[in-house]
Structure formats: structure tokens, C-alpha cells
């Protein structure tokens, strides 16, 4: 089986508030995107395509090794992944879609996703339980309902797919579709999605505190 990794790295990182695209923000001196590419490689994915902001291609080329292919991302994560998928070589039968913003994803998470794909599941996501009480609020922020959380999960990346199933699901999407992850794309196309264990260390760097936490994690 041949897996291609697509790294979504074309976001700007508004919530992080850095003065360069989030995927280029350094963690222990290396750009987040370089860590995320390494995570996929350490888990057994050799071919990597990275979707980058078009105007930053040169900076990404300097940040990554020459065997990583760069493509121009789009206005949404969905558009960026679609561009990466279009650029993957025909030889790949599996696709792992990963966020550049999850730099410290342990290789075991990647391996668990690949193992479930090898078992014949067409779509696999790593998940974690919800550990806080979870509520619904009204427009003023008042709590109107506590949600039972036993069956809720937080979804991480990399998310793994049979390439034919993912390509077919993307082909069904409207060109301007903007879904929050790729599992939602295949589910919209009727493909069942199974879960494997995620890992707290695969947390997404979204706000400044997440970057500080990642720095501490690297130093341990
Ligand atoms: N047009 C976009 C938007 C997001 N992403 C990528 O999708 C991943 C998850 O998105 P998120 O963490 O929301 O990143 P940003 O969109 O950059 O963050 P923000 O919403 O704070 O601007 C990131 O690795 C980001 O680079 C992408 O490839 N193309
Ligand atoms: C893809 C993702 O990381 C799965 O949890 C998440 O949906 C990305 O969300 P964001 O708001 O675009 O960061």
C-alpha cells in the first residue's frame, strides 16, 4: 500500500496572531510545517504534498526538504486539501490529510490510522474524549442546555482515507464548499468513518497558549 500525506498549511493563523503564516511560525527554531511533515514521515508516509499560501511559496520551499511537493492552497482548508489531492501522484492508494498546525503528532497516531486503513476501513479519524462539561448557550452566552458527553469526541489529524473514496467525495462537493474536516467531506458522500485513539500531544496550535505549551513539550 502506498500512502500520500497532504499537509494543509495555507492558513494565515489569525487566532495565533503571529506576523507570518502560522505554518511558518517557529517551534524550537523550526517552522511548524516542518515538524508536521516529519510526524507523517516518522509514522511511515513517504510522499508528501504541502498546500501553502501562494504568495509564500519561496519561504515554504526554504523551510522544507526538496522532496516535499508544494501546491498553492485555497481560501478555505477544504480548498487547500482539494488542491493537494489533485497534485498527489497516481500511484498512491491511501491519503493521510494532516494539519500543519499539529506539529507534535506522535508517529503512533499516524501508524494507528494507517493500520485501520490496512484493515479495509475507507475513512479513519483519530479522536479523544471530551473531558469538560459541555453546554449549549444562547446568543447572550447564557447556558440553555448541558450536552451528554459520553458519546462526544474531539477529532484530530491525520485523517486517513482510501484515495478513491476521498477523491470521489471531493468531486461531489460544491467548488466553494467549506467543511471543518475531511471526514465531513467523505461522510457527505456516504462513506462510513471509523475512529482510532488520538493523542493529547497531537493538539492543534491555534492560540498563543498552544504554542507555549508545544515549546514546553519539546523541551521535556
Ligand atoms: N485556507 C486554508 C485555511 C487553513 N488551512 C490549514 O488548515 C489547518 C487547520 O486550520 P487552522 O488551525 O484554523 O489554521 P488557520 O486557518 O491558519 O487559523 P485561523 O482560523 O486562526 O486563521 C492549518 O494547518 C492551516 O494552515 C489551509 O491549508 N488553508
Ligand atoms: C481539521 C481539524 O483540525 C480537525 O479537528 C479542525 O476541524 C480544524 O479546525 P479549524 O477551525 O480550521 O482550526
TrEMBL record:
Belongs to the IspD/TarI cytidylyltransferase family. IspD subfamily. Keywords: Isoprene biosynthesis, Nucleotidyltransferase, Transferase. GO terms for molecular function: 2-C-methyl-D-erythritol 4-phosphate cytidylyltransferase activity. Catalyzes the formation of 4-diphosphocytidyl-2-C-methyl-D-erythritol from CTP and 2-C-methyl-D-erythritol 4-phosphate (MEP). The gene is ispD. The record marks 149, 204 as: Positions MEP for the nucleophilic attack. Its EC number is 2.7.7.60. Pfam families: IspD (PF01128). NCBIfam families: ispD (TIGR00453). PANTHER family: 2-C-METHYL-D-ERYTHRITOL 4-PHOSPHATE CYTIDYLYLTRANSFERASE, CHLOROPLASTIC. It comes from Blastococcus mobilis. It comes from the Bacteria. This is 2-C-methyl-D-erythritol 4-phosphate cytidylyltransferase. Pathway: Isoprenoid biosynthesis; isopentenyl diphosphate biosynthesis via DXP pathway; isopentenyl diphosphate from 1-deoxy-D-xylulose 5-phosphate: step 2/6. It is an enzyme of class 2 (transferase).
